[in-house]
Amino acid sequence: MIKKIIITISVVTVMFINANISTAGSDWEMNLKVKSGNAANRLIIGQRPDATDGIDGRYDVPALLAGDIKAYMSIESDEYWKNIKESCMIPCKKTWNIFVESDSMGQIDLSWDLIAIPDDVSINLINVETGDVMDMKTKQNEYKYNYVGSKKEFIVEAQTW
User: Fold this and answer.
1) Which residues make Cβ contacts (< 8 Å) with residue 28, sequence separation at least 6?
2) Closest CA to 127 of 99, 160, 93
3) Integer-rounded Cα radius of gyration of the chain
4) Fewest CB within a 10 Å sphere: which of 29, 43, 83, 158?
5) CB neighbours (10 Å) of residue 50?
6) 67: which residues sit within 8 A by CB, 6+ positions away?
7) In angstroms, rounded to a whole number, what is the distance separating the alpha carbons of residues 26 and 70?
8) Distance from CA of residue 108 to its chain's centroid?
């Protein structure tokens, strides 16, 4: 009888540990839309277990920059529209450096969709120039600023717990 109880507890413990490991750093993607007037770009960031933190041909898409708005991620001195990094199996932090340029002055809107972000991932938008940090999960799903002619840098930081 005691042997059965010990085996049952062991099996339940292993199942619980596996369930927690499989949810940590789950696959996720987030669309980030950058808009100025009628011009817009869409960036995609996220994590997958089979991606790499460097450039891989499967999940990273080079940016073809043209038009009135240019939004991109800088990775190893190249520009990308999509960058998926490796999922974390333990608590970790991943960052994406995002740059925005425009041919015209005026308001630029950044908006995002957080539907697919797991509960164990916090995500922040950091304005590099001002140092402002915005929790992208608890604030409105947008950030607006006035473009005055110089390239603007943001960092999106995802922390897996």
Assistant:
1) 46, 47, 116, 117, 118, 121
2) 99
3) 20
4) 29
5) 11
6) 39, 41, 103
7) 30
8) 19
Residue with tokens 């473009």: 147
Q: What are phi and psi of 148, to 5 degrees?
A: -120, 20
Domain locations in the chain? 26-160
Q: Note down pLDDT in tens along the chain; length 161 residues.
A: 565 544 445 433 333 333 333 344 478 999 999 999 899 999 999 999 999 998 988 899 999 888 889 999 998 889 999 999 999 888 999 999 999 999 889 999 999 998 788 989 999 999 999 999 999 998 778 999 999 888 999 999 999 98
Give the burial string for 126-137 (b: 16+ CB within 10 Å, else e). beeeeeeebebe
Q: What does the alpha-carbon distance between residue 90 and residue 94 come to, in Å, rounded to a whole number?
A: 12
What pTM, to 2 d.p., does this model score?
0.80
Question: Strands 39-48 and 142-147: what pairing?
Answer: unpaired
